[in-house]
């Protein structure tokens, strides 16, 4: 079975991380995540992530470092790959999410992250002060 890849952007500005609240599906709605989504056939991970940020937030992002490796998500064989990112143009808007929040280091756990995202959030902490 092929691995299904979901890519996520840890968008950082002024030491804050952008968190996005899912609108759908019902079982995930209300949970917080990294903007991103599934990689389409023929697309690289990085291309998919830039495309998803345009679709979901209306911004052009520049990708930075990869955070860790393949983070397992719930369904067997699905992994999450995360890159740091900065906004190159535009101001993020919740075009497909319920809400967006810029979280400072001491606010990271004030939102209910999707369960698979929690270890990734932990791994991002050192990147907020760079
Ligand atoms: N985008 C994103 N998805 C995540 C994260 N954590 C996590 O468990 N997921 C899960 C939720 C979904 O089951 C799946 C991503 O699906 P998606 O619905 O965002 O993908 P997509 O934009 O390509 O949408 P579609 O093709 O299914 O319509 O991965 C995360 O931080 N970001």
TrEMBL record:
GO molecular function (one): 8-oxo-GDP phosphatase activity
Cofactor: Mg(2+)
EC numbers for this chain: 3.6.1.55
Gene3D superfamilies: Nucleoside Triphosphate Pyrophosphohydrolase
Stored InterPro entries: MutT-like (IPR047127), Nudix_hydrolase (IPR020476), NUDIX_hydrolase-like_dom_sf (IPR015797), NUDIX_hydrolase_dom (IPR000086)
Keywords associated with the record: DNA damage, DNA repair, DNA replication, Hydrolase, Magnesium, Metal-binding, Mutator protein
Enzymatic class: hydrolase
GO biological process: DNA repair; DNA replication
Residues covered by the Nudix hydrolase domain: 2-126
Pfam families listed in its UniProt record: NUDIX
Xref: SUPFAM superfamilies: Nudix (SSF55811)
Catalytic reaction list: 8-oxo-dGTP + H2O = 8-oxo-dGMP + diphosphate + H(+)
PANTHER family: 8-OXO-DGTP DIPHOSPHATASE, NUDIX HYDROLASE FAMILY PROTEIN
Family affiliation: Belongs to the Nudix hydrolase family.
The name this protein goes by in its record: 8-oxo-dGTP diphosphatase
Organism expressing this protein natively: Actinomadura logoneensis
Taxon lineage: Bacteria, Bacillati, Actinomycetota, Actinomycetes, Streptosporangiales
């Amino acid at each position: 079975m092929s691995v299904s890849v979901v890519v996520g952007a840890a968008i950082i500005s002024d030491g804050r991380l952008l968190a996005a609240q899912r609108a759908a599906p019902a079982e995930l709605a209300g949970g917080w995540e990294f903007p991103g989504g599934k990689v389409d056939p023929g697309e690289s991970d990085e291309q998919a992530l830039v495309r998803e940020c345009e679709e979901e937030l209306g911004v052009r992002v520049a990708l930075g470092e990869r955070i860790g490796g393949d983070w397992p998500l719930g369904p067997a064989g699905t992994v999450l790959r995360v890159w740091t990112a900065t906004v190159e143009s535009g101001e993020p808007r919740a075009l497909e999410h319920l809400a967006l929040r810029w979280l400072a280091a001491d606010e990271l756990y004030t939102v209910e992250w999707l369960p698979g995202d929690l270890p990734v959030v932990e791994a991002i902490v050192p990147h907020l002060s760079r």
